[in-house]
């Protein structure tokens, strides 16, 4: 009797667990805002967002050439990243990408809305790269020009400080002879017969 009851409880637990998994899988929403970034002739980066509240531990990406049945499947778990690099693409080729979320219990969400993109020519990628390099050179030239202006301003400031110091030094130097003359004059007026070298009482032999 107890064995029959245990068996029924076990079946009930299995049923409830299966029901929980099915409900959880149905409630897991598909990724949104799927976009392509860093698009090149042979590679690209897929990015997406996860609806708030979903417990997601991984993703799965399906990559397909337009009008071609062959698929590439990329899956990764135990990650919170919201982007994935696509490689070995062909230039001037149309691709379709779907993204799915993987839940903690295993089931995946529905596919996201299909994202279609086309890879550019290799020459267009090189031209874009050259344009970026020119832009970086322009930025470097602007930075160097700014540094040169700062150096010039600093030199002008130092020249002003040195000129001011020299001017003050000349004023102090010009005042020193007048001070010495005043001291000599005062010494001459105060001479006495005890000091026959100066004063009105100086006698001639």
Notes on the structure:
By secondary structure, this protein is of the alpha+beta class. The chain folds into 2 domains: 29-120, Sandwich (Immunoglobulin-like); 121-205. The chain has 2 helices and 7 strands, in the order αβββββββα. It has helices at 2-27, 122-189; strands at 32-37, 44-49, 56-65, 71-77, 83-86, 94-103, 115-118. The protein has a 4-stranded antiparallel β-sheet with strand order 4-3-6-7, with no helix packed on it. A 3-stranded antiparallel β-sheet has the order 1-2-5, with no helix packed on it. The longest helix is centred in the last third of the chain and has 68 residues, at 122-189. The protein starts with a helix and ends in a 16-residue tail after the last helix. 10% of the residues are buried. Residues 198-205 have low confidence and may be disordered.
